[in-house]
Amino acid sequence: MSNDVHQRSITIGGVSAEELVNTYGTPLYAYDTTVIRNKAHAFIDAFKEEEINFQVAYASKAFSTVAMVQLAEQLGLSLDVVSGGELYTAKKAGFPMEKVHFHGNNKSLKEIKEAIELGIGCFVVDNFHELSLLSSESKRQGKVAPVLLRVTPGVEAHTHAYISTGQEDSKFGFDLQAGQAKRAAVEVLEDDSLHLLGLHCHIGSQIFETDGFIEAIDVLYSHLQNWKQTLSYEAEVVNTGGGFGIRYTEDDQPLDPSVFVKTIVKAVKDASERLGMAIPEIWIEPGRSIVGEAGSTIYTIGSEKVIENVRHYLSVDGGMSDNIRPALYDAKYDAALAHQATPDNEQVTYAIAGKACESGDMLIDAITLPKAKSGDLLIVYSTGAYGYSMASNYNRLAKPAVVFAEGGKHQLVVKRETYEDLVKNDLSLQSLD
User: Fold this and answer.
1) 400 is in an annotated binding site
2) Cβ neighbours around 363 below 10 Å, total
3) Using one digit for the tens of pLDDT, what is the confidence trace for 314-348?
4) pTM of the predicted structure, to 2 decimals
5) Would you say 287 is a known binding-site residue?
6) Which pLDDT value is given to residue 155?
7) Pairing mode of beta strands 145-152, 122-125
8) 386 known ligand binder
């Protein structure tokens, strides 16, 4: 995003917000794809400087569409999927299946069957039930499934309680301390239909420091040392997950991607050399940190309500149906009016409300903006991750369109839903007599 002082209009990818809205309407998810490119290159280039084998896998749960998956392929990224739907999206996008990593704590037999048939690059296995299904289906198809074991290293990132996933008490992964992970490793190593690539961990989300990654790698290697001694096994791959923080408001101070990469690489190299192991291929899984800041949501302001000495509400034509994070996580966002007023214009502190029939549908509790009116455009920044991907049809609200913009050009990549789309799967009532 940029603020063109001459036109006094915010632009996204070199296109004014007004032009985007005139073309596609509101609410509208608008992505500056140059930001996506720069973020992806920052991770990839940092690894290249380290001269090691690596994969940067885009965590598509953050934002998954055919166009986004195709862009990920153009950028040289691998792809992390967590469902049959995300896998199907990758297939429709023509993404190379050997660069797909399949996550999830409850993969169905149908999903496992489809993934093996497509020849994906890796299953990130989460539990013994999955191991059993994967082994049986691999044998049935006469194939060998590559496996990473997801483990819980007992390291908790300093992040929101709802999105901390690396501690021992988690629905994700094999527990290291209780010996589950080693039992799983033995099962895989003794199974001709499975191939153990290595270990995976994910310690949380929206992380602004590197200490947790260093600690998690130390924990992984303390167990890999034991596995080398007792199982004669060395990991080919160590995947340290994602969770790299982004800027939502001025209170957020994210680190440059290269800082995370260099810290992770150094920790893995140091541990490998100390224990006399070959340096494995290192994988990471940025999602939010690639697309989050690239996306903005443009709304049209509607009603206004003033409660003297309490709050001044502005309501917009979207809300929790297109961005559930404020209601779910108490997530904070920054915003601006699309057409910037002069500095001497009256400033007002507003509460930005959504249009859903829920008192909790508040996008921003308090933000100071130039005085606004019905029909003005409001841009909420950094909605590129978990906006569209978590959108719903609550209140039978149609999901917004998605547009990519770059270099002054723009392209529709997801059509706006229609009322007909909302009822296309509904069936008429039939007599039960």
Assistant:
1) no
2) 28
3) 999 999 999 999 999 999 999 999 986 555 678 99
4) 0.94
5) yes
6) 83
7) parallel
8) yes
Burial (Cβ within 10 Å: 0-12, 13-18, ≥19) of residue 249: middle
**Residue 343's pLDDT is what?**
56
User: Is position 58 annotated in a ligand binding site?
Assistant: no
Q: Which fold has domain 52-291?
A: TIM Barrel (3.20.20)
Query: What CA–CA distances, in Å, run from 3 to 30, 293, 376, 409?
Result: 15, 16, 16, 17
Place of tokens 């690239």: 294
**In 10 A of CB 310, how many CB atoms?**
8
Residue 266 has what pLDDT?
98
- Determine whether the annotation assigns residue 243 to a binding site: yes
- 393 DSSP 8-state letter: -
CA distance 195 to 350: 56
- Whether 122 is catalytic is no
> Which residue is it, tokens 């040392």?
225
256 burial via Cβ count (<10 Å: 0-12, 13-18, 19+): exposed
241 is in an annotated binding site: no
Task: Using DSSP, state whether 108 is helix, strand or coil.
Answer: coil
| Structure confidence at residue 432 (pLDDT) | 79
Q: How wide is the angle at C-alpha 173 spanned by C-alphas 231 and 104, nearest 5°?
A: 125
Q: 325 labelled as ligand-binding?
A: yes
Segment (H or E) for 94: none
Closest CA to 261 of 68, 34, 100, 40: 40
Nearest-CA neighbor of 90 among 82, 100, 77? 100
Q: Which residues contact 308 (CB under 8 A, 6 or more apart)?
A: none
The dihedral through the CA atoms of 404, 408, 409, 415 has a sign that is: positive
By CB atoms closer than 10 A (0-12, 13-18, 19+), residue 229 is: exposed
Find out whether 223 and 176 touch, Cβ atoms under 8 Å: yes
Say if residue 19 carries a ligand binding annotation: no
Q: Are the C-beta atoms of residues 80 and 58 closer than 8 Å to each other?
A: yes
Q: Residue ranges of the domains in the chain? A: 2-31+294-423, 52-291
Question: Which residues of the chain are modeled with pLDDT < 50?
Answer: 1-7, 162-164
Q: How far apart are CA 182 and CA 134, in angstroms?
A: 18
CATH 2.40.37.10 fits 2-31+294-423, yes or no: yes
The residue from 357, 427, 429, 432 that is catalytic is 357
